[in-house]
Amino acid sequence: MSDVDLTSLTIAVLGGTGPQGRGLARRFAVAGLDVVLGSRDASRAAEAAAGLADVGRVRGTTNAEAAAAGDVVLVVVPWDGHAELLASLTAELDGKIVVDCVNPLGFDKQGAYALPVEEGSATQQAAAILTGSRVVGAFHNVSAVLLEDPEVESVDTDVLVLGDDREATDLVQALADVVPGMRGMYGGRLRNAHQVEALTANLISINRRYKAHAGVRVTDV
User: Would you tell me how many other CB atoms lie within 10 Å of the CB of residue 91?
Assistant: First the structure.
């Protein structure tokens, strides 16, 4: 995927003040990409961006302004606000590649578990709402702890990229490839997103048992 040129693109991260959003923004900024963090609170986004000023070009604003500014827009928001946020941004996201990174999970005394989603997955819900966007699912299984840790130079994991638009999935695979150690891998069409999102519950269980930050590697490819 290295033949895809990302240098002219702005990467927006909706929900960019949370650990996963900040971590992904850090890695993309270190790779030399322009990054815009979005939040419900512009001041929180600006504060988070200021914390990354030493690693690259990062600025913070509202989710709506970030969505409008981004050429590729990552959705890294809590599941309970997922549908409402996307429904409010259909105009800003029209025609754009939207990368849904959300895992619909619940937690109880037994740990994490996958929640049922009427559309099948968070990624499919995004596609149903954003009918004018090119929706891709990716970055579901990457440890926020590793992404945020400046001492971790290589994030050794594969990123399963799901979508029905080949050009869009190729670009998102290339986006994953800019992070040292990370490899974007096509993982199937949108209808296969559920099990990738749900796998995060298994990784959380692994991490709790082994005190680790487990990821996914695909062999023989």
Answer: 10
Structural domain spans, the chain = 10-210
Look at domain 10-210 and name its CATH class. alpha beta
Window from 1-5, 94-98, 163-167, 177-181 with minimum mean pLDDT = 1-5
Q: DSSP letter for 190, please.
A: G
What whole-number distance in Å separates Cα of residue 192 and Cα of residue 175?
Answer: 20
Q: Rounded to two decimals, what is the model's pTM?
A: 0.97
CA 119, chain centre distance (Å): 19
d(CA 118, CA 129): 13
The one-letter amino acid at 150: P
| CB burial of residue 8 (10 Å; 0-12, 13-18, 19+) | exposed
